[in-house]
Amino acid sequence: MIALACDHGAFDLKQAIMKHLEARGLAYKDFGCYDKSSCDYPDFAAPAAKAVASGECDRGIVVCTTGIGVSITANKVKGIRCALLSDVMSARLTREHNDTNMMAIGAGVTGEMLALEIVDTWLDTEFSHAARHQRRIDKMMALETE
Known about the structure:
- By secondary structure, this protein is α/β, with parallel strands linked by helices.
- The protein is built from six helices and five strands, in the order E-H-E-H-E-H-E-H-E-H-H.
- A five-stranded parallel beta sheet has the order 2-1-3-5-4, sandwiched between helices.
- Helix 1 crosses helix 5, helix 2 packs across helix 3 and helix 4 runs parallel beside helix 5.
- The termini are far apart.
């Protein structure tokens, strides 16, 4: 199950991602927002991130106008590794090297067709399990206990 969240600035992109996931037969849970009324992105990105951190959802995709606010919000939740993505290579490498469990996209930065390609690449790429990458992730995540 994929957690989804957006703010008003990325509502249309979230709708496109939902349709895309449905076409792929992938389940998702929509944490909002649910229309284009002005809203605060942490109100939606945080519950989505908490669902990923708790295991309720396997991974999460959050979107706002730049992707910055939702990615910062998601990364404040213990256990989350959210990457702000705007290209396919980064989508692949952040899964292979960083085992990210959430991704963010800026709807005002990345067009819909590219955004959907990034989503597919990120969802379809597995973590490499290379010892050097796991070592680095372990060091990164240990910072949460300091």
